[in-house]
Amino acid sequence: MQPQPFNIMTKPIGPRCNIDCTYCYYLEKEKLYPSEKKFRMSDEVLESYIRQTIDASIEAGMPEVNFAWQGGEPTMLGVDYFRKIVSLQTQMAPAGTRVTNAFQTNGILLDDNWGAFLADNGFLVGISIDGPKAVHDRYRIDRAGRPTFDAVMRGLEVLKRHDVEHNALTTVHRANGGKGREVYRFLKQQGFEFIQFIPIAERSGIDGLAGAPQVDMAPGNSVTEWSVAPRAYGKFLCDVFDAWFKSDIGRVFVQHFDVQVALWMGRPSPLCVFAETCGMGLALEHDGSLYSCDHYVYPEYRLGNITETPLREMLWTDRQAEFGQDKLTGLTAQCQACQFRFACNGGCPKHRFAKARDGEAGHNYFCESYTMFFHHAGARVREMARLVAQGRPATDAMR
Q: Helix or strand or coil: residue 383?
């Protein structure tokens, strides 16, 4: 198939982390490697991955080569490991090729050494923070069960002190789902200008390594106690939108709202969650294994290993195209008839374990959340889309 742009979430330390968030879906992936001790991407795999990613990005006609480093917790590898990464990128990228690095961290190990490195090399840093101390510490705890908020705030101060470009990744769960205004106000007070909200909905009683989740359970009795309820997440989005729309358009950028404006303009979604199809957001484990998606790191979705099969031969295949197309062909009848299908497209397949109104399996757990938001904010989103399409600033909608 024709080469096309892609994004890979890279796990150079695999699922290994220095904290033990109650809701983390990735820590269990250690079981995929029962004999592994280090969980550290070897020099051989790292060099091969960087070289192949640069080559594939150029082949796909991408304007720049993007690397996204995640975990687990990547700072556990130390600054020198990432100095080596930058050095390899510099050596391997052809003259004139722009290479960017994004870095997701819990912030706890950040110090001035890290701050100087991240600033000097133009890293974009996402820091995981769930709101004020009480709600953040409800589930984001260390391996001794101790709260992490104060340590995260010290890491955030490092980023500010060194002028590192950073944004907030905030999960929405049972403890903060009813506190949209409070969480948003807190994030603004910390100076975040870019915010991403990720709802938590994890199946209970499911062995995550036995295979991808099936679509055979009703939401009421199939999610963990820390999962956010659909109505609570819908209200969270509505409350945040009201506060944002009142005074922060053009000053604070909330990913969910930016994506919706694009969709209501008739443009394709820049975020896979709301795109018609997916498949170009993959995950690479520390041993070089490539998986169809970060949320589908299961044996049946392993595409191969970059040390054995060239990256390009795993990215652009009928198998991966079918994985992405399943997002569209798997819509329930309720989804297909919905007036807001253009703005949602059935959401992430990971969350399609609920039942539609007629009992059809495979409906999105967050359907109620999204329809609540569209009914509440749709007219204002449509107005912003109209203004932008006319070449006017979206801020005019606040008037």
A: helix
Q: What is the pLDDT of residues 221-248, one digit of tens each?
A: 489 999 999 999 999 999 999 999 999 9
Phi, psi of 319 (to 5 degrees): -65, -45
Query: Can you tell me the distance from the alpha carbon of 319 to that of 313, in angstroms, rounded to the nearest whole number?
Result: 11
What is the per-residue DSSP string for 313-349? Answer: HHHSSHHHHHHHHHHHHT--HHHHH-TTHHHHTT--G
Contact 104, 148 (CB under 8 A): no
Residues belonging to the active site: 294
Beta carbons within 8 Å of 263's beta carbon, 6+ residues apart? 269, 274, 342, 343
**Inter-CA distances, 186 with 136, 252, 381, Å:** 11, 13, 24
The two tokens of residue 268 are: 């394709």
